[in-house]
Design a protein that fits this description.
Order of helices and strands: HHH
Shape: rod-shaped
Number of helices: 3
Oligomer: single chain
Distance between the termini: 102 Å
Structural class: mainly alpha
Length: about 100
């Protein structure tokens, strides 16, 4: 009768954190600070590789959140780069328009 009151122990397997996920996160941070273009590409590529590792059946490693954060930072940096290039082009088109309208 006391067997029903005994606690049941569940053993959880702790997976090691994926090295690629850590690289993706660090590269995402470095993309905002020191190496904007190179680190952005590294963050996206290693992030997708790490997510492939963490979502495998059975999972090889943990760190899906780190990989996702690296991927998101990489894509945000690409978006900011595109917006910056568009603003740069718009600026020079505006300046060229002012120069050519004042000549005539």
């Amino acid at each position: 009768m006391n067997e029903q009151n005994e606690p049941q122990y569940i053993s959880a397997v702790v997976l090691p954190t994926s090295t690629l996920a850590i690289v993706s996160l660090v590269a995402g941070i470095l993309g905002f600070t020191i190496f904007p273009v190179i680190a952005t590409i590294v963050a996206i590529v290693t992030g997708h590789m790490a997510r492939k590792e963490t979502r495998a059946v059975p999972p090889i490693a943990g760190g899906d959140g780190l990989a996702t954060a690296g991927i998101i930072m990489g894509y945000v940096q690409i978006g900011l780069l595109v917006v910056g290039i568009c603003c740069f082009i718009a600026y020079f088109v505006f300046v060229a328009g002012l120069v050519f309208t004042n000549r005539s």
